[in-house]
Structures are given as C-alpha cells and as structure tokens.
Amino acid sequence: MKLAVTGKGGTGKTTVACLLAHYFKNDGYQVLAVDADPDANLASALGIPSEQAALIIPISQQRQLIEERTGAKLKQFGQLFKLNPTVNDIADNYGISFQGIRLLVMGGIQKGGDGCACPENVLLRSLLSEIILNRDEVVIVDMEAGIEHLGRATARSIDKMLITVEPGSRSISTAKTIIRLSKEIGVNKFGIVGNKIQNRTQEQWIIRQFSPGQILGMISYHENIQEGDLKQQSLMEVLDNELRKEFDKIYYGCRQKNE
Amino acid sequence: MKLAVTGKGGTGKTTVACLLAHYFKNDGYQVLAVDADPDANLASALGIPSEQAALIIPISQQRQLIEERTGAKLKQFGQLFKLNPTVNDIADNYGISFQGIRLLVMGGIQKGGDGCACPENVLLRSLLSEIILNRDEVVIVDMEAGIEHLGRATARSIDKMLITVEPGSRSISTAKTIIRLSKEIGVNKFGIVGNKIQNRTQEQWIIRQFSPGQILGMISYHENIQEGDLKQQSLMEVLDNELRKEFDKIYYGCRQKNE
C-alpha cells in the first residue's frame, strides 16, 4: 500500500507519518518512509540519532551526482527507478535503515537561488509509480506542505491520501483543496486526521466539514508532543496511552483499503 | 520598504502580514499587500468580504490570459512589470483595494497535475524588483510556507525578511535555514517574530536560538485568534489590547530600516 500524508503546514503531517511508520513496522510490515518535505525532518521524528541522520544523502544530492556522472537530464530522471525497484532496492541504494524502518530523504533547497524542487518531484513521482510492493510492504510519504505538489502530480500513484487538519478554518480549506486536486490526478481515497483537538466542540466542527467516510480519527492536543519536540525527543518516546488509543483507530482505518 | 513574511507553515505568517498591513495603513502609508502563498488566504485575514474576494483575479490566471493574448512565454513574463510600476499601477491593473489596503493575489494551483508554481514566482520576483516605492509606500509579501521560494530567489529584492516561529524546534530549524538561504540571495536584514507563546520559558527558549538583534517581538497564544478563525472573523475584529501591545513593538521594530 502506498500512503501519502498531506495537509497545511504545521498541522502534524510528520507526526502522523512517523506514527504510521512505527505502527506498520510493529505489525510486521516492511516500511519505506519517504521524507518529501524539504522543510520537515522525518528522520528526527522517527528517532534516528543525529549522527546517523547526518549520514543520509538526500536524493536531491544524489541526483546531482548522477547528473554529473551520466549527463542525464531532468526528463530522464524518471528512468533511474525504471527497473522495477523494490522497497529493499530503494533503501539499499538511496536510503538508510533504522530499527526496521527504511527511510528515503528527498532533500531540500541547498542554496538560495539554486532553483525550484521540480526535479526532485519528478524523481519522487517516478519512484512512487515504479516501486513494486509485496502484500506486506508499505510506502509512507511525508509530503511537502500545502498544495504545490498536487500541481506537480507527485503523488499520482498513491493508494490513499491522509490529510491532517487542525481546528482552524484555513487547514480545512487546504484539505478541501487537496481533495479536489487529488481527484484530478486520480487519487480517490482520503482519510482526514484531526490533530491538536482541545475539546469536543472542535472535534465535531471538523467532522462536519467532511463526508463521514472521510474521517479517519482525531488526535488530542498533547502537551508532551510539544515539550518532546523542544527537548528533541522522538515521537515514540512521548507516546502515552491516550495518544496510543487515539492512533490505534487511525491506524486500523488506514489499513482498510476499500473506503 | 519591501517586507516579506516567511516561516514554517502554520507559524502565523498570514497573521503577521495582515497586522503589518493594517498598522502601516493606519500610520499613513500606502500599502500593497501581496498574497504569495498558494495555500493561504490573506484576503480573508484582512477582512475582505468573500463576495469582494471572489472578484480577485489571481495573477496566475491573468498570466494565462496574457500568455494567450500575447504569446509571451515564461522568460518574458518579467517584462510585464518592466515599465517602472508603482503601487497604484499594480493595484489598479492586477489587484483590488479594500479599506485603503491594496491586495495582489499570486494565485495557486488550480488543477491537479497542471504544473508547478515556477511561473508565478518568476512574475513575483520581477514585480518585487521592479516596483518603485515612494518614502510612504510599503510592500508586504505573505510568502509561500517553507523554503522552496528561496531556491527560486523570489524575494531577492526584499529589504527585510520577517520570520515567524513558534515554540517548536522544527519552526526554529526552518527559520535558521531561511536566514542562511536568504543571505545567499542577498537579503541580510531579518526580524524574528515568536508566535503562540504560552509562557516565559518558551519565550526565552526562542530568544536563545537567534542573535539578539534579530528578535523583533513575541505574540502570545491568543485563544480569540483561533476562535475568530473558526468563526471566519477578520484579524482586526479579534485584536484586543494585549495583542495590540505586543504587535506595537513588532511594528516599530519593523519600521526601523537599519538593523
């Protein structure tokens, strides 16, 4: 299964992608997590120590290497992944493994004025469409915030698009735009995850904004997530029983293919 | 003066851009506010009624019109604004006016798979560099979240880059990346605005992350901003004395050119 986590910036995409990766892994799946947000840090959320994270060569840098060595240009980048890559191939060649989770980092803007992230998005789109998954394998993409990736159709071959929202009208409006644009690139399964919920009124307010089948679950506002972030703890370190219970529901909903 | 408001998604760029626009206007400045975030809604934050906001034709759509009519291609877009445009020209030809604030909307991704936002960024970069400002005129750009615009050097001719952060290590890390990349495109003045501050410890923690001269001010966590958002109130409707006092400091710091 190929899952992408999208949403307005700051609504908790990385939190959800990270928890999903751990849940699937603990359930016996082979997990390839892809950090596709040039402004996020899935490695740190996953608990990868900074020394090991420093060894990750982002795809954006590998692209430059490949380009220099082969002279391949943008349009041909897609072909890099054309040989029916598997989760293991990808992890071995382009990523790292940590506690059973494989991580691939797309990489960000390295230098001001160096250009856009279009080439990386071409690469990722190609990777997501070419990768061959077994029944027990899952790809989880922490997408770039906002909606530009939908113009680029980066997530075209995703099976289900999870969308994080918080109790704020702008995150809802982003989610609705994501649903509309995703359908235009052929993605038709969605799961809304409400985050930072402080009371029942906020929860109900979010639920009213979407069709009932689209709601996957809700995550309360957890002070320890924020505090853990300040202390640079991994998400799994701050996972308490309440959050676990909330996320159980999201995870099981997420595993259901036909919705 | 040309100001851009940047930062990680969800940290309050639109809030700060909107307050700045109102403060400058109330102080007698001619204000051109530019909504350059395809995933934001500066018009609604400014309090523009939805019927009037619906009349705004985003630059991205005007670009298509212009392209169809003139056959101009991407590289020539910059020339659209080449004739020493003024704040009034821009507002008259491409934007709308509301309560003395001129607003220009860059526009977003209209259709899934339609492509990236590179052309709009070329246009905006050109506009920002060509526009001629009088002493009493100010341009305030609500930039796209994250850092891709810095690869595109969209804000190359900005005088000061305001960066919103919240008490979270990822927003700080984004801010530091923004400072580094901005210097590479020639922007050297920065103002950090801490937002959603819940206590003195968080405030001090943020202050420690930057050089003292870079801190512009702090905005507490205001429940009425969140509630106002849910009720789709404009920011000025929920502006209370506490927020006003906090923002006074940010505004005066912002007006100082030499920092």
Describe it.
Two copies of one chain form a homodimer. With 259 residues, chain A is an alpha/beta fold. Chain A has twelve helices and eight strands. Chain A has helices at 13-26, 42-46, 50-53, 59-70, 87-94, 118-130, 148-151, 169-184, 200-208, 223-230, 235-238, 241-255; strands spanning 2-7, 30-35, 96-98, 101-105, 137-142, 160-165, 190-197, 215-220. An eight-stranded mixed sheet of chain A has the order 3-4-2-5-1-6-7-8, sandwiched between helices. In chain A, helix 9 (200-208) links the parallel strand 7 (190-197) and strand 8 (215-220). Chain A is globular. The two termini of chain A are 14 Å apart. Mean pLDDT of chain A is 84; it is low at 74-78. At the A-B interface, helix 7, helix 8 and helix 10 of A face helix 7, helix 8 and helix 10 of B.
What are the key terms here?
homodimer; 259 residues; eight-stranded mixed sheet; 12 helices
What's a quick, concise take on this entry?
Two copies of one chain form a homodimer. With 259 residues, chain A is α/β, with parallel strands linked by helices.
